[in-house]
Write a structure and sequence with these properties.
alpha+beta, Arc Repressor Mutant, subunit A, 2 domains, nine-stranded antiparallel sheet
């Protein structure tokens, strides 16, 4: 489902992949995920569309179709039902926010977003020093976690990376012992904490086919906005949010519709406690289609 958000997907197709009848799959999916497949797919498509509205200059029509909605009217109805404003209104508010946000301010809530609204833009607005950096291809052993709870980097018990390391050691999988990777497909300012998908990963030497609940993911070589970070998961979410809202196309680059990620550089102590030396937060970039080599931003 996550890999085919822009395509029509039927319950029968998804159930067939799981080897279950549509009726049985529907009940199992709801029990495990907490919402039915149709609602889950609609939510993921809306969240993808919100990110596209923030980072691209594509039309609302293009974003609606790219996000898997049959018509712009269907997209607008779903967007208004979820966020109580239209996609065009949201984009206008973002544009005004970018034009007037003062980076010297410590905290701002932009007028027009109620505090209880999921799209509230409230986070620290300290100037965020960033750099553009190329990251290498990585093979990852991944374990999905729901929500930011239990992601106590720097504490003796680090879940779910601890499970990943234990699995790799038990099965003799060569892996990096000094890097922990976190991939966040969801925007915590849009998605409720218990529904946030957080993919924890450790770099491994080569592709594998691990058993459930572990998965393999190839992280491609890419160019990113990078920020050296101190603090916990909540602060990283604020960093990602600030970059996502404030970054403007520059030097031929724009934010890409791909999940941000963080890399924790750690050391393992004698008592098996993990200490983070530093963390880098990354948001993938893409070439700006209107930029030509030799031109300014």
């Amino acid at each position: 489902m996550e890999e085919r958000l822009e395509e029509p997907v039927t319950l029968a197709e998804i159930a067939a992949v799981a080897g279950l009848s549509p009726h049985h799959f529907h009940r199992v999916f709801r029990a495990v995920v907490g919402e039915n497949p149709k609602a889950h797919l609609r939510r993921l498509r809306l969240e993808r569309a919100v990110y596209r509205l923030k980072v691209s200059t594509d039309t609302v029509l293009h974003i609606a179709l790219e996000s898997g909605f049959a018509t712009p009217e269907t997209f607008t109805r779903a967007f208004v039902q979820r966020f109580e404003i239209s996609p065009s209104e949201y984009r206008r508010m973002l544009r005004a926010y970018r034009e007037h946000a003062d980076l010297a301010q410590q905290s701002t809530t932009f007028a027009g977003f109620a505090e209880e609204t999921p799209l509230t833009l409230r986070y620290d607005l300290d100037a965020v020093p960033v750099r553009v950096e190329s990251t290498p291809e990585r093979h990852l052993l991944v374990l999905r976690h729901r929500g930011y709870n239990g992601l106590g980097i720097g504490h003796p018990s680090v879940e779910p990376w601890q499970q990943l390391r234990a699995f790799a050691i038990e099965h003799g999988i060569a892996h990096s012992s000094d890097l922990l990777v976190g991939i966040t497909p969801d925007d915590p300012y849009v998605v409720d904490n218990e529904q946030i998908r957080f993919d924890a990963g450790i770099p491994i030497a080569a592709p594998i086919d691990p058993p459930h609940p572990f998965t393999y993911r190839q992280m491609p070589a890419q160019v990113c906005v990078a920020h050296r970070h101190t603090g916990g998961a909540e602060q990283i979410a604020k960093t990602f949010a600030a970059i996502g809202v404030q970054w403007m196309p520059s030097e031929g680059w724009r934010l890409r519709c791909a999940p941000p990620f963080e890399i924790h550089h750690v050391d393992q102590r004698a008592n098996d406690a993990v200490r983070v030396s530093w963390t880098d937060a990354y948001v993938p970039l893409d070439h700006h289609p209107d930029h030509h080599p030799g031109e300014g931003p």
